[in-house]
Design brief:
Shape: globular
Number of helices: 4
Helix content: 10-25%
Oligomer: single chain
Radius of gyration: 19 Å
Distance between the termini: 27 Å
Number of strands: 10
Strand content: 35-45%
Largest sheet: 7 strands, mixed
Length: 237
């Protein structure tokens, strides 16, 4: 008998958010709603274990979409072994971000092959942390400077009645293990779940996003896209 995949719901909010569209190279422009990868990262900030993966099922938009343009000082280089002089590397860039956002995230807990416990164990651990407001690190909305507040839903949440064709949206990043392509190194896992450093590359996966296609204010995340990510990763990442 197949194990039930627990589904949990989390309400998140924040003063600002930026879910950056990758097609804009220099100036940051946010998607109008949260992306599945940003929702997954937020849940992992609250509770994560290597024995399972988060799969986002739905993202409910609970407030009207508001955008604001801000001018920020940024660095055009990364800090390396040698120190850098900030004044020489500073650049001013404009970002089009979201203001006063609120979402309801519905997600599934999917066990990895090496998991030995039942899914309900992780579901109960997550719900306890959610009720107490505990997290591993501060959840954020797209970028780390935009912290997110989170709480259990009270059942009165109603999606904002909008319909919007977003077009191609970033679904997630697949970390593909390939010894012939050593573009980056990342931690992978073997069939027994043992953590090991592997070589490979990262590949972005996109999907056609439409808010309100099945229900007003709701972004449905296609489950088959997770199968595509897992095939790309060959079960290692």
């Amino acid at each position: 008998m197949a194990l039930r995949e627990p589904e949990v719901a989390v309400k998140v909010r924040g003063e600002y958010a930026c879910f950056t569209r990758p097609e804009f190279k220099v100036e940051r422009v946010s998607y109008p709603v949260m992306t599945p990868s940003a929702a997954r990262g937020l849940l992992e900030a609250i509770f994560w274990k290597p024995e399972f993966r988060w799969q986002i099922a739905e993202i409910h938009v609970l407030k009207d979409i508001q955008q604001i343009a801000v001018l920020r000082n940024e660095l055009d280089d990364r800090q390396g072994k040698d120190p850098i002089f900030v004044e020489d590397k500073r650049q001013q860039r404009t970002s089009l971000i979201l203001k006063k956002v609120e979402y309801l995230i519905k997600a599934r807990i999917c066990l990895r092959p090496h998991a030995k416990d039942l899914p309900i164990k992780y579901e109960e651990c997550f719900l306890r942390r959610l009720e107490k407001g505990q997290c591993h690190h501060t959840p954020y909305l797209g970028t780390r400077e935009f912290a997110a507040g989170f709480e259990p839903p009270d059942g009165t949440e109603t999606p904002w009645p909008i319909q919007m064709n977003i077009g191609q949206m970033l679904f997630d990043i697949a970390y593909c293990q390939d010894s012939k392509r050593d573009e980056l190194q990342f931690w992978g896992r073997d069939a027994d779940g043992k953590r090991t450093l592997v070589k490979g590359y990262a590949q972005a996966v996109f999907f056609p996003a439409y808010v309100g296609k099945e229900a007003p204010g709701v972004l449905k995340v296609p489950r088959e896209k997770y199968d595509e990510v897992y095939r790309l990763e060959h079960g290692h990442a």
